[in-house]
Amino acid sequence: MGQTIAQKIIAAHLVDGKMEPGCEVGLRIDQTLTQDATGTMAYLEYEAMGIPRVRTELSVAYIDHNTLQSGFMNADDHRFIRTIAKKIGVRYSRPGNGICHQVHLERFAKPGKTLIGSDSHTPTAGGIGSLAASAASSIATASAGDGYTVQAVSHLYKLKWNEDLNQKFAVDMFEKNASMDDLIKSGMCELEFVGKEKASANVRQSLLSDKPFSDLVKRATTRAIDAAIAKLQAKNEVFRTVTPIIGGDGNGIIYAAIGTKEGLNEKDEYEILEAQEDANGKTTYKSVGSVKPVKGKIWNNVYGAEEEVAENKAKAEAKGKEAKDKDFNEDAVALGHTEFKGKKGDYTGYFLRLKKKK
């Protein structure tokens, strides 16, 4: 089945998430527009980000809403917008040029481009085949500063090791109480490249937070790194962690302290492992069954989840509404573990490991 124009534009600009119904996505933004009723705050927020020049293909500041009055406020706003626009590379549309959404449609909008604007009529550009949306001034600001996502790349290396090296380490290093420098100089620490993965995390969910922008970037960066590591674990069995089972009801439900930070979703399959000791005293694991996460009982343990829940709740209460973000509800964050369902039995002292990623 073919794609709609909107689907094609989203696919071409997708930087985060999946193109599936109900899934949040992050898009690369080509253009932004602001007007003088919302632009002043937008550019003050942009200055706070510390980004010297806009990174969009085009950003335009329109002076079209607020008229000059007896007071000084509007005149000051217009002067500020004109000077900041010159400083950061934003086109400045003078008073009298026309209303932002119509002028942008006629002069700048292009088929196949994405546009975010701080004016409610920004979607007018959709008439020419742009994917255009209106948003809060802070969202438009983030778009202009390329502030939607943080991308991290994690590299995985494996230490080359065998029985000969083990014996050499015992004699030359362990028995002589050698230092870390001695170990490095010995040439025993040779690494083998296994693979690399990249992942993105968006700042968008937190843009209305009262936190400094640097804290929001730190939050997104940590989540991106965790997501990249989770991808490496999913693809490379040798890197998969073995997690203790911390409890259960004996009727097929067990608990483990892992969650969305580890990339867990309801379609994954995990194996139950029994720890054993071989003749040489080395711990090995025997698979004795498999389980799957229970929908609605997956722990949200991503970095900063508790803070973000509190922020979203406070913002919603301030507007007299209930927080509706399904990924950051209080129940998912407060779980403290994920529930798994599968084979009945007492698995105290057993472990879980990812078996199949879906």
Indicate the topology.
Layout: H1 5-13, E1 14-16, E2 26-27, E3 31-35, H2 39-49, E4 58-62, H3 73-88, E5 91-93, H4 100-107, E6 114-117, E7 131-134, H5 137-144, E8 149-159, H6 163-174, H7 180-185, E9 191-202, H8 213-235, E10 243-248, E11 253-256, E12 269-277, E13 283-293, H9 305-318, H10 330-334, E14 338-342, E15 351-356
Parallel strand pairs: 3-4, 3-6, 4-5, 6-7
Antiparallel strand pairs: 1-2, 8-9, 10-11, 10-15, 11-14, 12-13, 12-15, 13-14
Structure description:
By secondary structure, the protein is an alpha/beta fold. The chain has 10 helices and 15 strands. Strands 10-11-14-13-12-15 form a 6-stranded antiparallel barrel. The protein is elongated. The chain starts with a helix and ends with a strand.
